[in-house]
Amino acid sequence: MSEVVEAGHATHDDHHDHGPDKGLARWLFTTNHKDIGTLYLWFSFTMFLIGGVLALVIRAELFQPGLQFVNPEFFNQMTTNHGLIMVFGAIMPAFVGLANWLVPMMVGAPDMALPRMNNLSFWILPFAFAMLISTLFMEAGGPNFGWTFYAPLSTTYAPETVTYFIFGVHLMGASSIMGSINIIATILNMRAPGMTLMKMPLFVWTWLITAYLLLAVMPVLAGAVTMMLFDIHFGTSFFNAAGGGDPVMFQHIFWFFGHPEVYIMILPAFGVVSQIIPTFSRKPLFGYDSMVYATASIAFLSFIVWAHHMFTVGMPLAGQLFFMYATMLIAVPTGVKVFNWVSTMWQGAMTFETPMLFAIAFVILFTIGGFSGLMLAITPADYQYHDTYFVVAHFHYVLVPGALFSIIAAVYYWLPKWCGRMYDESLGKLHFWLSFIGVNVTFFPQHFSGLAGMPRRIPDYALQFADFNMLSSIGAFIFGFSQVFFLYVVIKAIRSGKPATDRVWEGAHGLEWTLPSPAPYHSFTHPPKITDAEAHS
Amino acid sequence: MPKVNIRRLTPVARLCVGFVLALVAVGAGADELNMTRGVTEISRSIFDLHMYIFWICVVIGIIVFGAMFWSLIHHRKSAGVTPAKFHESTKLEIAWTLVPTLILIAIAWPATQVLVAMYDTGGEDMTVEVRGYQWKWQYKYLDEDYNSTFYFFSNLATPQEEIRGQAEKGEFYLLDVDEPLRIPTNRKVRFLITAEDVIHAWWVPEFGIKRDAVPGILNDLWTIVPEPGIYRGQCTELCGKDHGFMPIVVHAMPEDEYDAWYAERLAAEEERKRALSKTFTEEELMAEGEAVYATYCASCHMPNGMGVPPVFPALDGSPIATGPREAHLDVIVNGVYGTAMQAFGEQLDAAQIAAVTHYERHAWGNDADDVTQPKDVIEFMSSQQ
User: Fold this and answer.
1) Of B258, B274, B290, which one is at a domain's C-terminal end?
2) B36/A313 Cβ within 8 A
């Protein structure tokens, strides 16, 4: 066996193609999982800053009651594009980027299973977002109907540029589908011998399940926007009541995609946190098996709870009860995960480097978002919460200190492995505290303005909401600028950080830490031997 | 070394104390921080449910975060501990699956009861159709056979100057309308909710009712308001540009007052129908036209008639407002398909359309040499059929 491997190695060496191409061609034509991962991550960060600027336009307008900076129609374009860019441009590509970098290294593979498709799935994205964002500069204005684009506001009453939006969404969907096929193929076919499914690191597990969710629901989204396209241009009436269609059907289709979509944005985050907490607790992950089962249960439940986004559309009582009970059930596997993380920390020997700080904040703040989620699940109470800032607070708590904090934690955690250099720990901690304070000052008051009755998506508000909005805007600017600081910390690390060791963290387990830092261009040209120590932490 | 870490934890602990205090403030019922208790039986049972779940979450939070912070403080490497090796416990894992399930059942039970009570429609004393328009509400009072007796629009009454910061904002900034929905207290009022154009949502927090107004679909809701008063809410489904500017105001009146108002309103309806055959002076047309324009047209075409080109064209000097009247009436009555210009033929009566048409043709720099009377509008509309 070893002879065969040695021989293979010798012939492989003859190609002399181990390093990357030079210049722009490296990035345009690359089929290397690390290059593509890097592209995804930088693209995602760029989108994050653009989406953040839109958010700051929103918060600047909402700083005080009255219209100060923008008109209502432009405000609607800001909320819509902020949502679309953050969901499809920042969070999702960031996780795909992490998967590209880490999955091959974690399962002991040389690269992704389908490298050319990998290149395509990335390079579609800049075009998709160029189309979407270009509409903001067109005469008719960009999409202004909310990221949920409910018909008929997004069809009969939409600006002409809606067609760009539809094709943009189609492209993003194609990119996601290709990305997820690639991840599934890599995980199922490219694991090193001995890396059984139940030995995979939890990040790999959560991504495997996420990839199946993507495969299942992105075509549904494509169907929804195609029906919109036909309603707008080809005279059909899928969503037009006057022609025999049904605007509520749009919402059912959208949320059949949309609810799994929100788990697409959080399951890989669970994976990241499940890697980081054991490392800095110096103790194995508590309840690995139940973590896997809980992730699978959450994924299954995500398909049967969609109408809890639509409690006010006027469903029959039986439907309301079903969706209420099913939604409440999600609390059980999610609770299992939180209990497991706390038990992992319990009696560990913890240190609090930046990735750990972000991971701990994730557990606390995501749980707060989970509590408001449970409250929202209760149909009668939801009548009062629905479409108010309480909902805005809820989903920002699970997406910002949830999904986004996990991505930032992942960057701090694996950056030394990626570039071979350490970030500056004090700067990282400063970034953490600024972000932590910023995020809470921004979103915690929104619970109160929502309960007091402030609707979402309004450019101006009644006077009783003024204090909370001012506070929220101040927090948003603190948070926004601290992410520019994050950029500085990362660039400083890449340029002049101290060299990192291979293991990087004292308590790190997993195959990626057996590679040199920075990781070689091709990860494992020989399948590594899987020992229990190197299996999941 | 341990000192440094404790210091680093302190801000977390402080923030957590802050959180708990804020939560307690909510729990103690600080009104401006919490959901309204409202005035109806339904809204109060929703409030109780909300507080019940809230306290369950607080207790769970204290247990989970308490354990976590205990661990963060005591199980630090700098405290010199050796990490334990355990990584599972079947008993514990079964327990923390079962206990939350039981808690959920304890939440689901009262929630189901409240929901069933909310669905107890029927047996109503009167019915009002609520129709969402971009960007106003129409209230239509229906008789026993669901025929319309009269209807009116409820428009935002906050002046543009307050919104644009040119005047001081009033007490009910953005929550005031020109004519509120009036309902009697202590009677079961049924609302049939629908929309004309896009989806809106009708919400009165103090009644604990919210329902989407979906074009082509009739949803129903009901309420019994025990206390007279003025109750305010807002549209809660994104419906386009002025989504934030279509409040809901409900005036719940003692029964006898309501009955008197209703009789008066019915008589006024007869009077309005008679006005359609009247001939007005130019001054009357300009005055009425300016009022109609301010309510229905100014948010897009602007009070000075300059619009917001290219989306909302200027009327001052426009070929439509200065050209042949037929074309001008056509735009107002039928709207412009595929644009934000709505068809006002159904929303305004002939006298209002005549006045606003006359106003637009003579206001600002416009100077058409015609006078538009209600009969001209009726003539135009019947010539279309």
Assistant:
1) B274
2) no
Q: How far is CA B222 from the centre of its chain?
A: 16
Inside any domain, residue B238: yes
Distance, in Å, from the CA atom of B172 to the CA atom of B176, rounded to the nearest integer, reads: 6
Q: Which of B118, B147, B165 is the last residue of a domain?
A: B118
In the set A261, A353, A382, A512, the catalytic residue is A261
Residues B232 and B262 in one domain: yes
Inter-residue long-range contacts of B39-42, CB under 8 Å, 24+ positions, other chains counted: B39/B206, B39/B207, B39/B225, B39/B226, B39/B227, B39/B229, B39/B231, B40/B206, B40/B207, B40/B208, B40/B223, B40/B224, B40/B225, B40/B226, B41/B224, B41/B226, B42/B114, B42/B117, B42/B118, B42/B207, B42/B208, B42/B209, B42/B223
CB A67 to CB B36 under 8 A?
Answer: no
Nearest to B214 among A247, A285, A286 (CB): A247
Residues in Cβ contact with A162 at an 8 Å cutoff, skipping those fewer than 6 apart: A143, A145, A154, A155, A228, A232
B35–A347 C-beta distance less than 8 A = no
- Is the Cα dihedral B133, B139, B143, B148 positive or negative? negative
- Name, in order, each residue with C-beta under 8 angstroms of A323's C-beta and a sequence gap of 6 or more: A305, A306, A307, A308, A311, A315, A379
Query: Are residues B232 and B161 part of one domain?
Result: yes
Residues of A in contact with B77 (CB under 8 A): 282, 349-351
CA atoms within 13 Å, Cβ hemisphere of A504: 30
Judgement on whether residues B144 and B188 belong to the same structural domain of the protein: yes
Q: Which of A34, A59, A283, A308 is catalytic?
A: A308
For B295-310, how does the pLDDT look when each residue is reduced to its tens digit (9 = 90+)?
Answer: 889 888 999 999 888 7
Separation of alpha carbons A56 and A69, rounded Å: 12
pTM, two decimal places:
0.89
A111 is catalytic: yes
- Print the domain residue range for B307: 278-383
Query: How many angstroms separate the CA of residue A525 from the nearest CA in chain B?
Result: 33
Who contacts A479 (Cβ-Cβ below 8 Å, separation ≥6)?
A400, A434, A435, A438, A439, A441, A442
By three-state DSSP, how is residue A21 classified? coil
Query: Directed axis angle between helix B41-74 and helix B90-118, to 10°?
Result: 160
Question: Does residue B21 sit within a domain?
Answer: no
Q: Do B242 and A345 touch (CB under 8 A)?
A: no
ipTM of the complex model? 0.91
A79 in active site: no
Tell me the per-residue pLDDT of B218-277, one tens digit each, with 9 for 90 and over. 999 999 999 999 999 999 999 999 999 999 999 999 999 999 999 999 998 888 888 788
Same domain, B132 and B45: no
Instruction: Give the nearest chain B residue to A506 (CA atoms).
Output: B77
